[in-house]
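G., before I forget:
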Amino acid sequence: MSREEEQRVDTQRRRFLGVATAGTVAGTAVGSGALTLGGLAAAVATDAASAPRTEPVSKIHRWGMFVDASKCADGCTACVDACDQENGLNLQSEPHGSNEAKWQNQRSVWIRKVKLQDRASGHVTNLPLMCQHCEHPPCVDVCPTGASFKRADGIVMVDRHTCIGCRYCMMACPYKARSFIHEQVDQKLTRAPRGKGCVESCNLCAHRLDEGDISTACAQACADENHHAIVFGDLKDPTSPVRQAMAKQASRQIREDLQLNTGVRYAGL
Amino acid sequence: MSKRIVYREWLIQPERYWGLLAILATVIAIGGASALYMEHEGHWVTGMTNSVVWGLPHVFAVFLIVAASGALNVASIGTVFNKPAYKPLGRLSGLLAAGLLVGGLLVLVLDLGRPDRLLVAMTTYNFNSIFAWNIFLYTGFLAITIGYLWTMAERKGNFLQRPVGIFAFLWRLALTTGTGSIFGFLVGRSAYDTAVLAPMFVVMSFAYGVAIYMLVLLTSFAWDGRPIGPKILRRLKNLLGLFVAGILYFTLIYHLTNLYGAKSTDFESFLLLQGGIYTLMFWGGWVLVGGLLPLGIIYHPRLSTDRNWIATACALVIAGGLAAMYVIIIGSQAFPLEMFPGKSVLAFGAPGDIGGAVAPYMPTLAELLLGIGGVAVAMLIVSVGIRVLQFLPESLSDRDMDGLVEPV
């Protein structure tokens, strides 16, 4: 092959590579464009289907809870069981080959029954502990993608579409309220979607609120047991049961020193 | 007139070079397979739990990222602080910094719950998050380092070397401050809620970066039969000694600050006295192996002139650095969140769910292999870089170097 021929071949090859690259880029762009359009169409369809819930949540309400620890019965786990049922947490299965003790610390938990003893007096207190729905939530501040967010009505939750599973929110939360999904999820409920590699926590049964039902599974279960230790409602409405309860009794926030202005308040602690 | 510095590709025998690449590639492949395994099964196969949410991969990732910014210091001393003796060391410094950063970031990203959503992380930002700032600090660091290398290697860009060098130096300070602040701004945890972590990370980065730099320099020069003069080696090891002493100083301040505030005394007694593995890692790893032993070697009249001992000191600083990261990252998570002062936690959820007690954490093999894979990535980048491009000076012997003899 002469030198000129060699050069010609070379330029042809270059041109081919150029065209191939451009083709690939264009193809990818068209492909992703189509995907986006498809996604939009799907989004529109879902929006149409869920028309009654399209009204955005507003700042008029701030949902919260009042917990009277003196009414929280020792040994009762009604709130925890109800939450597990409501949010599909009971559907989690321990992965084959996992260690039981470790699994208890890896499975997702939204609400816990905590038992405390005063070191000076020996007095024992029981209380339910869940996401405290802070006004200034540290988990929302640290989330790099904004997946951890606070709704206008004060509910702190995770957007499972943008959570990358970095777990920085879990590092930041002072209440150990968040759980990371450590395992493959086989079964889940439509109202509480769940996926491996994302973080989640109590959302004050937002699906109920969005349907106009002002209650949470835990508060309802507690009332059903006749304990009435958990009262749920609108913190901004002076006539709401939660505000009435708070007016009658002194309450405090857990880790008040952090000044997070939590949406969950405790009495008898 | 200054002496001419000649740079040459790494000229070790092909068998040796390809053998090294094969080993590194194997280690990387194993690390990649571990990441895939963790991703496929989910994080339950690691030692991580809802209590200890960041495990061994973070120890490696943060160490590599911190060391990356420190590795660039050698170049900064040459161009920013105008020390001619450090000029020939600049190119390797930039390459090593870029390599370590890429290795560290890979480990960080592969340990995400959803690494497939990296694009989300790069397109959706919450600018209140220090993590989000760090994404810019890291990618910016990489771009600036590459630009900095260009100004060092290309004659047409030489005049930009100093301004770019100063910019890179300021950027790396911001980067390590940012990395330290990832932990320093976590108000909820007893161990972290202190601003002293940020400057401590800066000093740590100086030490770890220089230690890795010296090991890479000594090894690559020895394999290739290139000379390193005792004078430049003395300067580098003295520099390392200064930084190691700096770490010990900041460690002291960190603990004194915690001990002074009554709310952190429980954490201090855990870490310094009763923390089991963490106490051992702190005193044995962070303070002794990473601090006192290397200082002893570096300032020993006889040992400090032996390059094998100097290399040992560097290796000790690196080992101690990993131990320090283990204590900072994992020890601080294992320590229970203090939610109810004055009260003992009798039960916290279902039995086995941890709260109010020290959380157990035992790293699994997959985590370790992923971390080591990141180190291998950094080493692969450096090996290929110095082989194909002119990063290494031909000689660092005393008579070929500028600035080692004081003017009469």
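DSSP finds 13 helices and three strands in chain B. Chain B touches chain A through 55 residues (CB under 8 Å).

More on Monday.
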